[in-house]
Design a protein that fits this description.
Two copies of one chain form a homodimer. Chain A is α/β, with parallel strands linked by helices and 349 residues long. In chain A, 45% of the residues lie in helices and 14% in strands. The first copy, chain A, has a six-stranded parallel β-sheet, with helices on both faces. In chain A, strands 7-6-8-9 form a four-stranded parallel β-sheet, with helices on both faces. In chain A, strands 10-12 form a two-stranded antiparallel sheet. In chain A, helix 6 packs parallel to helix 7 and helix 10 packs across helix 11. The interface between A and B is large, with 47 and 47 residues. Chain A binds a DNA duplex (30 and 30 nucleotides) through helix 2 and helix 4. Chains A, B: Keywords: DNA-binding, Transcription, Transcription regulation.
DNA sequence: GGGGACGATGGCACCGCTGTCATTCCCCTT
DNA sequence: AAGGGGAATGACAGCGGTGCCATCGTCCCC
């Protein structure tokens, strides 16, 4: 009845099972060389005491923390969350835990902070999402610390770290083709935040599709947004104010597409009859707005799962230090979702 | 040049500074009783070696992990993310790290999983969000482990743990009053998922406002949704199909309000002239849909920050074991956002 | 001038586990 | 019968810090 009140340790288990702590450790870690009889006794003792190994002690002794970190820059909407859900799915199944850290990549002490996170916590591995994926300071710290990391949608593939992505350029290309196929020739474009990978790739895809169709890219139809609703409002205004205004607008993400739609509603346009709009990302928003938005779905969760798989795969081969070369670069399939925000352009008056 | 290649430890620092490791430890932990001279020498040594204390070792020895856990049930959209951002803000400032774990509260091994998370990782404290806030199994595990926790928007305040919330009943009351003041008398209501705290409180506020205004609650106007867009579509249909249909609809969250709006658009209603719609939560969606949605903003991030503050406040008083009694229950202010989805009802034909 | 009180520092056990190596026992070979 | 090899187990030294207590020198005060 009395019993020690503190949490049971491996020593208590060993004592109760009549074994050495090392043997208990073997059972806990599912190592070989334990007789079935002994195994059973120990498992019983574990159950009886409700023993749970202390991760801190374990990590200290084994130099493995079983911690995976997710470093991100902007807590950008549903994207970040989906990433986390994906990571969590895998972590759970493989006994890892997820630590999340936001890194203000603009701040002066990025270095200090990133270093503290990586080195103090002794993370086993790290997953990077934009815009930290391409931050040289962070990457160097990771390299120096010898912590394996996987980048989701990096600007540029590297030989030292794996990556996961979709072909954004191709997606933008296809989406633009869709508009062209409907008969649109004046297609406006709202870019995302400067220097973001996505911004560049999506824009490139748009340009290429136009060019391939023999349509010139008209700079008057290209606006610079920042991936936010607010940033896109003036862009939409300028585009729709033109005397020879575009019959379709490609916004670099759904949020900005929503701004275009709102602005069109303001002017009492009937959508999609008078204006086609497409977005990118398939955020929940896309399906809930009116009219439902034609957009591209990135399998974000699956991408995160793939990243986790790659990471955990490596970590499981203790002893090996380095990535296999060449390091894996996965490209997952995207989906073009044709909804009701696109239609043929209005007949020429 | 040669120097040890492994990460420097406190011993290296002590040696370099000509001090004992204990004194170095004092400096690292900002304890008192270190002479300025000694302090400076040690700080210099730390900088020179780029020393970073090993959290694992520190935790093991001190029985503090500096880890705060966020346990949640559904990764419900922007809400969860906002919570995390809030928590992160505080963790960062106080030297804590955030571990996130999803708990499938329907699964059979909730107990095992929750226990593993709490006990193995030796979390210093935990923040709970719906629907784990009220899971008796999880709560018991936390209590047993003696891990302090704060609940965000719990179903019921408890004497053993602090909570943070807004007055949802009051918010729903006010919002309903707004509709009444515009002249609406037939106000539809779409409830959230059964058993959720929010569902009950919001509905109660609605009923009370009606009653106080001398309007009877008509069960025909009350539909049961599940907080999702899809679940609300049939609800919206049924409400709008009625011969004497409501002139306004109160959806228990924005997502369901979006479904109502979409359904109204489908029928080519002009909003808000023919139908007023209100939601709850002020998700990003609310501002981006058309027309922009009148809704209630919960200061989610601030709530998370408050929760973290409460938790960290307690943790900083090491030695004290228990919450001060009575434990704090914070109620933050909400905001009613009047946008363009509400108007006076159409004049009686 | 003796006795505190207090500032400053160090010594050392110990937190709970894993890695390494030694040991024992058994069966199999030659 | 001796030797060899592998399965099963244990002893023990850390991993890198912190907590507690001892020590030492000063300054102060009656």
């Amino acid at each position: 009845m009395a019993g020690p009140d503190r949490k049971p340790t491996i020593i208590d288990v060993a004592r109760l099972a009549g074994a050495s702590i090392k043997t208990v450790s073997r059972v806990i870690n599912k190592e070989r060389y334990v007789s079935p009889d002994m195994q059973e006794r120990i498992e019983k003792a574990v159950a009886e005491l409700g023993y749970q190994p202390n991760m801190m002690a374990r990590s200290l002794a084994s130099e493995r923390s079983n911690l995976i970190g997710h470093l991100y820059g902007d807590a950008g909407g549903p994207y970040t969350l989906e990433i986390q859900v994906g990571l969590l799915n895998r972590c759970r199944d493989h006994g890892y835990h997820l630590m999340i850290e936001e890194i203000d990549y603009r701040s002066a002490n990025v270095e200090q902070r990133a270093s503290a996170i990586v080195n103090q916590m002794r993370l086993d591995g790290v997953v990077l999402t934009a815009p930290v994926t391409d931050n040289p300071v962070v990457l160097r710290i990771l390299e120096d610390a010898g912590v394996p990391y996987v980048r989701v949608t990096p600007q540029q593939e590297s030989e030292t770290s794996p990556s996961v992505r979709i072909d954004e350029r191709q997606a933008a290309y296809t989406l633009t083709q869709h508009l062209l196929a409907l008969g649109h020739r004046r297609i406006g474009f709202i870019k995302g935040k400067a220097n973001h990978t996505a911004t560049i790739l999506r824009y490139t895809g748009y340009c290429q599709a136009l060019t391939d169709a023999g349509v010139a890219v008209d700079p008057v139809l290209v606006e610079q947004g920042e991936f936010t609703y607010a940033s896109a409002v003036p862009c939409a205004r300028r585009l729709l104010d033109q005397h020879n205004r575009p019959t379709a607008i490609f916004a670099s993400n759904d949020e900005m597409a929503a701004a275009v739609v709102a602005e069109a509603h303001n002017r009492s346009f009937s959508l999609p009859a008078q204006l086609s709009v497409v977005g990118f990302d398939d955020t929940p928003l896309a399906e809930m707005m009116w009219p439902p938005l034609t957009t591209v779905r990135q399998p974000v969760r699956e991408m995160a799962e793939a990243a986790a798989d790659i990471l955990i795969g490596l970590l499981s081969q203790r002893g090996k230090v380095d990535w296999p070369k060449p390091v894996p670069h996965q490209v997952l399939a995207h989906t073009i979702l044709l909804r009701q925000s696109t239609a043929r352009p209005p007949a020429k008056g």
